[in-house]
Amino acid sequence: MLAVGLTRGWRAPLLGAAAALVSLGALVVFFGELIVTHVPESGLKLLVGTLLLLFGLRWLHKAVLRSAGVVAMHDEERAYQETVGQLREAAAGRDWVGFVLALKGVFLEGLEVVFIVIAVGGTGKSLPVAVAGGVAAMVVVAAVGVAVRHPLAQVPENTLKYAVGVVLTSLGTFWAAEGMGAKWPLDFVSIFALVIIYLAASRIAVTLIRRPVLA
Amino acid sequence: MSFLRAAASEVIGLFVGDWVQSATIVVILAAGWFAVSHLGAWALVPLVLLLAGQVVWFARAEARRSSR
């Protein structure tokens, strides 16, 4: 969004981002309400828990490989500079290029947030709170982007994704097992034990496969 | 059309990176479901250990693949 705005002007990318946000909001309202009102609780927990587990383990897997130096850390600064370079090379003029790029970027990145909001809000029967959390995160990211006019290169992205991967994997395991009819000892306190177990497993994996850090 | 394709592959990509790993997770969950219905909460211990174990297994497998 910053790359498009700074190279092609702000009107088209802002419209593209707004269109993407409206589409994402519609997804949350439609699927959130559908799930909360029509799916039985145990089935919902099993389905959402399984999806959350797959989603969280995917993040955790990538974070482990990055931490161990098996794959390069995601470099926001380089990705930003590459996008700026491509946009400067592209023929200037047609505003829809900026519109589509911003729409695509915001929509595709936002799908992950939409899934987390629907999964957490739908399973916990607290969709408005989950939506508020998602909106607050979006406002913070937008505010930082506007304030520094620079990609969020200073944010330790891999550490954040590592932590979120562990938490989502733990929540997914907790809900999937509840959906199967299991009762966790100490109820939701078990989530903390799951966090410790997944964190320990991921650190063992990092230790076993560690290589010199790639740039 | 290409946007819809990109969105569809992005949605699938949210949950599946390595099809073998995803299938393994689903099989562990299915076995866990069966075990929970017969053994109750005790089945949660092997379920969690298997899920945690596959994190280590598939990370090592990918590290080996990428070193070739």
Task: Walk me through what this model shows.
The complex is a heterodimer of chains A (215) and B (68). Chain A is mostly helical and 215 residues long. Helices cover 79% and strands 0% of the residues of chain A. Chain A has helices at residues 2-8, 11-38, 41-67, 76-89, 95-123, 127-148, 157-179, 190-209. Chain A is flat, with a radius of gyration of 20 Å. Chain A starts with a helix and ends in a 6-residue tail after the last helix. The mean pLDDT of chain A is 79. Chain B is mostly helical. Helix content of chain B is 87%, strand content 0%. Chain B contains three helices and no strands. Chain B has helices at residues 2-15, 19-39, 44-67. Chain B starts with a helix and ends with a helix. The mean pLDDT of chain B is 88. Classes of the chains: A mainly alpha (215), B mainly alpha (68).
Summarize the entry for a quick read.
The complex is a heterodimer of chains A (215) and B (68). With 215 residues, chain A is mostly helical.
Q: What value does the average pLDDT of chain A take?
A: 79
E-strand count of chain B: 0
Count the E strands of chain A.
0
Strand content of chain A: under 5%
The chain-level mean pLDDT of chain B equals 88
| Through-space gap between termini of chain A | 25 Å
- Main sheet makeup of chain B: none
Largest interface: A-B, 45 and 37 residues
Question: What is the approximate shape of chain B?
Answer: flat
Structural class of chain A: mainly alpha
Q: C-alpha Rg of chain A, in Å? A: 20 Å
Helical proportion of chain A, percent range: over 70%
Which stretches of chain A are poorly predicted, pLDDT < 50 over at least 5 residues? none
Number of DSSP helical runs of chain A:
8
Q: How do the helices and strands follow one another from N- to C-terminus of chain A?
A: HHHHHHHH
Distance separating the two termini of chain B: 37 Å
Structural class of chain B: mainly alpha
- Uncertain segments of chain B are none
Question: How many DSSP helices of chain B?
Answer: 3
Q: What is the chain-wise order of helices and strands of chain B?
A: HHH
